[in-house]
């Protein structure tokens, strides 16, 4: 540690007080996770996470998160390409608006979604005519998750697209490739590592989504009650179950982080 | 293939007209920012002109201006671009890189692979077909890039300083490959290197500040440069002015005696250029008298080694930086240093005068 560090071969040149601050920062993240595992009733762990309501929540969470990740990729990849490659009036504004859910409280997003797709929402009458009812359904869960996860994919992929640059695409065009061919055969393969880690990030964000979901989709077991909602409810009735399920989410988060780091590492090579 | 091209792009102060005959190879020279890359971009379709039109044979590349909005996308032009960096697709093997063009043009996988193999053989890197671009040296990658560009059978090939990023030991070999492959291939090559122009092009076009400053057959332009840029490139001193009494008189009163070039000697009062080689200049530290020599007093601006010789650049107080090549021994004997006043002496017989 510090000036005499033998682990790193290069001189870090950092003052000691900086390491103290850094240690507190790390503890702020590590300590609560540690406390969580301390309070866990290991003997009932398996029983707790396999209860009917837990399994339903876990299943719903995985299904909706996968679905919203797919939607994020389908909508976010084109959006990132348009933002990264073309130049048009209002582009900066569009970028800011698309990224808004990153900084917006999710519950505000949920209310906004309600007033768009809800019964009395902007598109409510149109959906009434079509006989579709989205609010408080599983589709609403997917929509809410997509709403909050999309910016993660767009911002991360746009960065990758800019790093890779436009030049390979121009070369492909002068070799006779149509714009569509360029996207499939050049752009997408080149950004694939970045796209994969962006998709994993959106998946993780969707999995953890709470505020927008409970506002827009409600909390109906097996239909809209995802794992975070289940944990929140169990916290009152059965704290042990809440802790066990929390740990499941922690494990998923750790896996996601490791996988993303691996992909980024491979992409960098 | 024949090309007609005229385009204007205000943002880059570009206004150029150019035409090429079938199979002709044109070298585009010019200082940085002269518009060389703009020219290539407009031809390849990566840039759009404000106004102008261009056609490759019967294929209209663009026709833009008041009321005219025709513009062909890059992929439909038959114009291949080879840049300084090879820009091989990193996710494809060497073979698949070269097969890319034929493949997107509709060839089957086998046909495209056969074409790619043939071109890899042409550029001498057949053995690298299975490698990834990351495993190639700069010279190898550029050979593959040449194969990839030619495998599309381009009507027009654009080369943007293809040797600039390469090691000096690799460039000559690649230049030989290009010299062999570009016979009858309509090519525009942008370069800073005189060798490229001499070996790879039939004709040179010199751009300066977005305009064509000079154009003509390569050897003619290099022998009788009209711009300082070209003169410097050709390693010659150039004084422009008007012809009178067997000499070129420039606007500031500088007079350079010389011999009129045959054919096409200038007549009295006509704009003319006087050109002389740095090797024909003798340096004296005391004032010189007498014809038929030109004696120009200059202030030495810079002294730099040039192989076995030393190149001395002197400011003639008329806006020219004139070069003289002398031996290191003379530099020592005459005690030459920047800032010293000396006399450049040039035999009139060593100065060629021709009309502009």
TrEMBL record, chain A:
* SUPFAM superfamilies the UniProt entry points to: MetI-like
TM spans, by residue?
17-40, 60-84, 96-118, 130-161, 182-204, 241-264
Which UniProt keyword terms apply here? Cell membrane, Membrane, Molybdenum, Sulfate transport, Transmembrane, Transmembrane helix, Transport
Top-level taxon in the UniProt lineage: Bacteria
Membrane topology reported for the UniProt record: Multi-pass membrane protein
Q: Record's family? A: Belongs to the binding-protein-dependent transport system permease family. CysTW subfamily.
Name of the featured protein: Molybdenum transport system permease
Q: Which organism is it from?
A: Micropruina glycogenica
UniProtKB/TrEMBL annotation, chain B:
Query: Its Gene Ontology biological processes?
Result: molybdate ion transport
A molecular-function term among this protein's GO annotations = ATP hydrolysis activity
Domain ABC transporter as annotated: residue spans: 1-234
Query: What keywords were assigned to this record?
Result: ATP-binding, Hydrolase, Molybdenum, Nucleotide-binding, Transport
> What's the top EC group for this one?
hydrolase
- Key word Cytoplasm present in the record? no
Q: Which residues form a coiled coil?
A: none
Query: Mop domain: from which residue to which, for each copy?
Result: 289-355
**Pfam entry (one):** TOBE
Q: What is its EC number?
A: 3.6.3.29
Q: What is this protein called?
A: Molybdenum import ATP-binding protein ModC
Protein species of origin: Micropruina glycogenica
């Amino acid at each position: 540690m510090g000036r005499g560090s033998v682990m790193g071969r290069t001189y870090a040149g950092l003052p000691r007080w900086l390491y103290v601050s850094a240690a507190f920062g790390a503890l702020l993240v590590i300590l609560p996770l540690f406390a969580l595992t301390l309070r866990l009733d290991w003997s009932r762990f398996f029983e707790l996470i396999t209860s009917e309501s837990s399994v339903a929540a876990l299943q719903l969470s995985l299904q909706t998160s996968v679905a919203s990740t797919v939607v994020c990729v389908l909508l976010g990849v084109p959006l990132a390409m348009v933002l990264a490659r073309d130049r048009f009036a209002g582009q900066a504004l569009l970028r800011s608006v698309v990224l808004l859910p990153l900084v917006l409280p999710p519950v505000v997003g949920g209310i906004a979604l309600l007033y768009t797709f809800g019964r009395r929402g902007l598109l409510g009458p149109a959906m009434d005519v079509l006989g579709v009812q989205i609010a408080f359904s599983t589709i609403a869960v997917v929509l809410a998750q997509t709403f909050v996860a999309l910016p993660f994919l767009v911002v991360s992929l746009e960065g990758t697209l800019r790093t890779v640059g436009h030049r390979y695409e121009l070369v492909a065009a002068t070799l006779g490739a149509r714009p569509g061919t360029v996207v499939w055969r050049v752009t997408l393969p080149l950004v694939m590592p970045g796209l994969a880690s962006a998709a994993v990030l959106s998946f993780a964000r969707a999995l953890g989504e709470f505020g927008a979901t409970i506002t827009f989709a409600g909390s109906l077991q097996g239909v809209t009650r995802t794992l975070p909602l289940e944990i929140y409810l169990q916290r009152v009735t059965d704290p042990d179950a809440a802790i066990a399920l929390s740990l499941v989410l922690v494990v998923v988060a750790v896996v996601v982080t490791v996988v993303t780091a691996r992909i980024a590492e491979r992409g960098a090579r | 293939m024949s090309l007609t091209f005229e385009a204007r792009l205000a943002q880059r102060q570009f206004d150029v007209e150019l035409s090429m005959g079938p199979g002709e190879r044109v070298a585009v020279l010019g200082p940085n920012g002269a518009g060389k890359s703009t020219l290539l971009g407009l031809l390849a379709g990566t840039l759009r002109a404000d106004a102008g039109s261009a056609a490759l044979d019967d294929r209209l590349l663009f026709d833009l201006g008041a009321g005219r909005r025709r513009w062909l996308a890059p992929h439909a032009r038959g114009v291949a671009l080879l840049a300084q960096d090879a820009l091989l697709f990193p996710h494809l093997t060497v073979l698949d890189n070269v097969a890319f063009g034929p493949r997107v043009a509709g060839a089957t996988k086998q046909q495209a692979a056969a074409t790619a193999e043939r071109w890899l053989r042409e550029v001498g890197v057949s053995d690298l077909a299975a490698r990834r671009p990351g495993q190639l040296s700069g010279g190898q990658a550029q050979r593959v890039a040449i194969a990839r560009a030619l495998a599309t059978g381009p009507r027009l090939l654009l080369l943007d300083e293809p040797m600039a990023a390469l090691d000096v030991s690799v460039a000559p070999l690649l230049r030989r490959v290009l010299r062999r492959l570009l016979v009858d291939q309509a090519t525009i090559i942008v370069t800073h290197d005189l060798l490229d122009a001499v070996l790879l092009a039939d004709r040179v076009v010199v751009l300066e500040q977005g305009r064509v400053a000079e154009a003509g057959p390569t050897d003619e332009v290099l022998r009788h440069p009209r711009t300082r840029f070209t003169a410097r490139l050709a390693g010659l001193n150039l004084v422009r002015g008007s012809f009178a009494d067997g000499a070129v008189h420039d606007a500031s009163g500088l007079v350079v005696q010389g011999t009129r070039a045959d054919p096409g000697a200038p007549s009295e009062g006509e704009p003319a250029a006087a050109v002389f080689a740095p090797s024909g200049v003798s340096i004296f530290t005391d004032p010189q008298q007498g014809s038929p020599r030109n004696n120009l007093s200059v202030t030495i601006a810079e002294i730099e080694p040039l192989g076995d010789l030393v190149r001395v650049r002197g400011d003639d107080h008329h806006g020219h930086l004139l070069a003289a090549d002398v031996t290191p021994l003379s530099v020592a004997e005459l005690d030459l240093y920047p800032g010293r006043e000396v006399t450049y002496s040039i035999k009139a017989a060593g100065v060629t005068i021709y009309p502009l």
